[in-house]
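Bench log, entry 3. Co-assembly request; chain sequences pasted below exactly as received.
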Amino acid sequence: MISGPQPGEVVLRHATRSFSVRADQARTLKGLVLGRRAPGPAPVPALRDVTLHISPGETVGMVGRNGAGKTSTLRVLAGIIPLQSGQALCGGRVVSLLELGAGFSRDFSGRENIYLQGALYGVTKPELDARLGRIVAFSELGEFIDVPVKTYSSGMLLRLGFSIAAHLDSDVLLIDEVLAVGDEAFQRKCLRRISEQIASGTTVVLVSHDAGAIERVCDRVVVLDAGQVAFDGPTTEGLLHYHRLMGTERGGGESLRQPGSAAVEVSDVELRDGAGRPSAVFHSGGSLALVVELRARSPLEAAQLALELRAQDGARVFRGLHRLSLGGEASAQLAFEIPDLSLLGGDYDLAVGAAKDGDEPVLERTVRFSVASAPGPEGIVDLRGSWRMLAGRTGVRP
Amino acid sequence: MLAYRYLFGQLVQRELRRKYKGSRLGVLWYLVNPLVLLGAYTLMFGHVFKVQSFPDFPIFLMVGLIVWTFFQQSLVSASESLIDQGALVRKARFPREAIPASTVTVQLITFAAILALLTPLALALRGTLHPAVLLVPVVVVFLFCFVLGCALVVAVLHAYFRDVGPILTAALLPWFFLTPIFYAPTRSLSFVRHHAWIGTVLAWVNPIAPFIESLRAILYSGHAPSWGQLLYVALAGLVALAVGLTLFRRLEGELAVVL
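Structure output for the full assembly:
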């Protein structure tokens, strides 16, 4: 390396790191001297040859399933843990918000902790004095700012931790999933503050499971899987990749109820895309087919099928009851086809249930799927309406 | 490094206040404890188990005792310091030495305060005003280096191997009795009279002994320490600090993982 990274630049070159996951984390000198190292599980790789370059001022969302190496990457970038091989460079002042309690002295008040955390990043007292008012105001902690931090709730810890991290004029800001602890209003406020930071040229790396948050803030998404970069590119594509990754793992629908002694039951469900391939990610306007396997105890002439669609927040989008002739079969494969999906970006649960003709079916199986977000209308359903002008009038209103 | 001076100040201040927070006497407790200890030891070793007889025994004893207390308290508090401050280590990339160094500094403040009380008292009572008194700060600086070096080793080792703390506590007890605190390793000790080499071992093998002997020469006996003692003190301080820093820097990387 000839010159160091410029402020705000983030570089990972062939970064590799694994962790020992032995139950007795605290080793003893006695054990070392006596050479008694009980065989434990092999070290778990957290990062495997990760190469990443983030230019100053870029905002990158990092997604992946639990244990994919997201937090490890941030801790390496923050300089908290070293790499076993490879190189990690982070230019300028790197501020991180990785763990809720980290950086706090529990016995000291919120106000005192502001000074301590600032000092951890090498910020001097006059600089902190100048920021104190803004930090306290942003945290909305009010009089609690003078109460020992050990009495704080996790939401309050997040408020203080984020307020400090967001007001230290960092070149690189690393934020882990902790934001999820905040209430909705504060999360929105955090995202707004992050975009202000971005506007002032800070490089931001945000780890989150909230695709909406990543979409609002980040231009670029890195998908990590098993310690490796699975995707690195524009946000929309990245999130699609991430949803696909999650979908494959989810497999078919899971039953929500105990298997009963019903006359007919749904034995399997699967979602397929327009080309007939199993999928968990769909596009607005594309086609979706729900394929259902029915099994009856005895041949049936007809069955009742219930179908229910719920949005992520639990709101019922659709519920329908259909009667289907089975023509005396004991088992059948059926498909519910939607040629032109009117759902907008988000995650949905589709539940299906069956009963013999005349009975009320209960929902037995659920499949989850995602609709890829696209620029344009937001919400659950695309109303597909359009505006037109009915009458016009020239001149201004009095 | 300079940017972290404020952090160091914060850690020292915090450590000072944390110990006796909420008590009315506050920092004064820092002085009360060693003084009570001194009273007890004066009674024990000056009257009950009298090994040697020295005029103005409390002053003789106190010089050794404050050096030892500084050494022992620093190591014990430094050994736990990294674990206590794990939340800070897991937060940011700052020089981790600041944590054990701040606990040692807090002990140094107590030590310096008592030494400042003791010096005029000793000079007045013993009539030992001598130009060598100017060497007191020099010895104290090397003592600080020595204690800091040892503290860095103990702190980082204890973070990795959690039995270092108990081993240290167990080692400090016999070490106390082998240190010339309430006796002098001279011929007036009965067993040194028969085996002169024991006196040499007591005076030179134990690295803390020359520090005590040097300060005692100046404050109690009123003469400069020998060149040998001064050289030993300087070397012990610098070597301990160098070893401590080297070991600490080699091991500090994984601290956030092991804490």
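The longest strand of chain A covers residues 288-311. The helical segments of chain A are 29-33, 70-77, 110-120, 125-139, 154-166, 184-199, 211-217, 235-250.
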